[in-house]
Design goal:
single chain, 274 residues, alpha/beta, Rossmann fold, 2 domains, binds guanosine-5'-triphosphate, binds magnesium ion, GTP-binding, GPN-loop GTPase 3, GTP binding, P-loop_NTPase
Length: 274
């Protein structure tokens, strides 16, 4: 059994890898972004060794732009699952992050990522958790928050995975923006809807629709966001614990040593850091 989660942001991966290393745990990253330029960790697998976006775009026959090229690369990956399997090697019981490209359509309505998830879960027995990252700076007013919520919901429905939504870059928010987001994170539908409804003619016209969507999301607890400040180690640890619980990571492995305090010691819970 292998444990994995997929994510959409490189900074998230490097933050988690570093945090795990500090705790003497190894987390591997698979880079699935064919356009990635730089990361501060050594990926276990790198799609760019299979196919690179620049090469696809430079192809005189294909004539792809960045978006079409990216989709082509992802489709090419899915046509070569053996390559991925071989590159992953023996990852039993490992914790692997899949750093995925940021193009939203891959998650909301295309099927490529869904195919990848099926491959991981069904063919290779991975336990997968989707980690959907949204820049908190784009969530500080009511209508944007509702749009971000809809995008997250769409990805959740499309991927059908244990799923967590994260608000990133919390460290960059001003105090007032932080307060604003806190209001939306509290289960208080009226603060959010109140914000959306004020203002333009358009929002007046569609007030009832916005109202209904907002109530639906609230009443069924469809979407929740978890704020992440990468400078706050406790915040990162809480998040990782939540994800571990979602995929039941580590439940079969050394329960005795992991689940209890183990301060002075010899910590034999996996000293195999690279
Ligand atoms: N201060 C701060 N900067 C961040 C945070 N997350 C990302 N950044 C910065 O935002 C920029 C983009 O971050 P990336 O991690 O490359 O984002 P990405 O989603 O992987 O981007 P693509 O792969 O191009 O889709 C980088 O310059 C990061 O340093 C954060 O939580 N705090
Ligand atoms: Mg990236």
């Amino acid at each position: 059994m292998v444990n994995v989660y997929k994510c959409l942001q490189s900074t998230y991966c490097s933050t988690i890898v570093r945090h795990a290393a500090d705790e003497r745990k190894t987390i591997d990253v698979v880079n699935l972004d064919p356009a990635a330029e730089y990361f501060d960790y050594q990926p276990l697998v790198d799609i760019r060794e299979l196919i690179h976006l620049d090469d696809v775009m430079a192809d005189g026959e294909l004539k792809f732009g960045p978006n079409g090229g990216l989709v082509f690369c992802m489709e090419y990956l899915m046509e070569n699952p053996d390559w991925l399997e071989e590159q992953l090697g023996d990852v039993d019981d490992d914790y692997v992050l899949f750093d995925c490209p940021g193009q939203i359509e891959l998650y909301t309505h295309m099927t490529i990522m869904r195919q990848l998830v099926d491959l991981l879960q069904q063919r290779w027995n991975f336990r997968v958790c989707g980690v959907f990252l949204v820049d908190s700076q784009f969530m500080v007013d009511g209508s944007k928050f509702l749009s971000g919520t809809m995008a997250a919901l769409s990805a959740m429905v499309n991927l059908e995975l244990p799923h967590i939504n994260i608000l990133t870059k919390m460290d960059l928010l001003s105090k007032s923006a932080r307060n604003q987001i806190d209001r939306y994170l509290q289960p208080d539908p009226h603060s959010l809807l109140g914000d959306v409804q004020t203002g333009s003619k358009w929002s007046e016209k569609y007030r009832h629709l916005t109202d209904a969507i907002g109530r639906l999301v609230e009443d069924y607890s469809l979407v929740r966001f978890y704020p992440l400040n990468i400078k706050d180690e406790e915040n990162i640890a809480d998040l990782l614990l939540m994800i571990d619980n979602m995929i039941q990571y580590g439940e079969e492995a050394d329960v005795k040593t992991r689940d209890f305090e183990y301060e002075d010691g010899d910590g034999d819970d996996g000293g195999d850091e690279s």
